[in-house]
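Fill in residues.
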């Protein structure tokens, strides 16, 4: 009878302990997890230590070693650190130069120039140090525009000479660009039919837009070429000198076209 009571008492005690553990785990679950994790880690460490071969760790330099024959120290094979592998194709270096313009935008097929047109191209090429073959393309196109817009012969060519010296990529301090020194910001609509403001780099586009503006200036000034040139220049006190320069170059071109010998200034 006493033994039965002892067993019942033990069961009650164990039950109380179990309930206490459950309550503790419910209130402090993180502590129970830490305890269980620590126990598992220690067990794993003991198992690894039992399975690992007994290899003596190399003594630190200068440390005392126990008496007796020293065990041979086997050096671990040296493993070289991985070196950076350069790409097979070198990356293109950054360039300070502007991107190249597509050849189709600025290069035009050679044209068949007349004898007078070829003579002017040679004369202008020697004076302004420009390729005569490229000048022939501009001269032929300028003659067509002059007839279309009813301008006097070689006036457009003379304007190109004075405005840009036949350099298609030149830009003034005011922002005028191209052969005819047109302001793209002001005349943006005129460039739309040629692909936008950036098309000023095409010499033929610059020529066509400039000639169109000169034609409109003629209409505004009642058909007077001199007044049209003054308006094209932008007016001002120096516009008279500009007109004289254009007219003088036009006269020289007319003489060259007529087969006369004209000295290069």
């Amino acid at each position: 009878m006493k033994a039965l009571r002892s067993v019942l008492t033990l069961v009650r005690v164990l039950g109380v302990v179990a309930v206490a553990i459950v309550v503790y785990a419910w209130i402090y679950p993180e502590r129970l997890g830490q305890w269980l994790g620590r126990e598992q880690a220690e067990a794993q460490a003991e198992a690894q230590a039992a399975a690992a071969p007994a290899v003596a760790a190399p003594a630190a330099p200068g440390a005392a070693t126990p008496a007796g024959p020293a065990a041979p120290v086997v050096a671990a094979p040296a493993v070289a650190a991985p070196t950076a592998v350069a790409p097979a194709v070198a990356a293109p270096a950054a360039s300070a130069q502007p991107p190249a313009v597509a050849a189709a935008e600025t290069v035009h097929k050679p044209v068949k120039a007349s004898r007078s047109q070829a003579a002017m191209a040679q004369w202008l090429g020697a004076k302004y140090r420009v390729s005569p073959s490229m000048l022939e393309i501009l001269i032929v196109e300028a003659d067509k525009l002059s007839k279309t817009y009813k301008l006097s012969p070689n006036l457009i060519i003379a304007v190109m000479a004075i405005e840009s010296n036949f350099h298609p990529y030149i830009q003034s301090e005011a922002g005028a660009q191209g052969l005819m020194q047109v302001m793209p910001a002001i005349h943006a609509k005129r460039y739309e039919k040629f692909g936008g403001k950036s098309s000023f780099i095409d010499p033929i586009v610059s020529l066509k837009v400039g000639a169109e503006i000169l034609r409109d200036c003629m209409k505004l000034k009642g058909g007077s070429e001199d007044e049209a040139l003054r308006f094209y220049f932008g007016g001002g006190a120096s516009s008279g000198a500009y007109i004289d320069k254009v007219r003088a170059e036009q006269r020289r071109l007319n003489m060259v076209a007529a087969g006369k010998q004209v000295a290069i200034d």
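Residues 59 and 78 are 18 Å apart (CA to CA).
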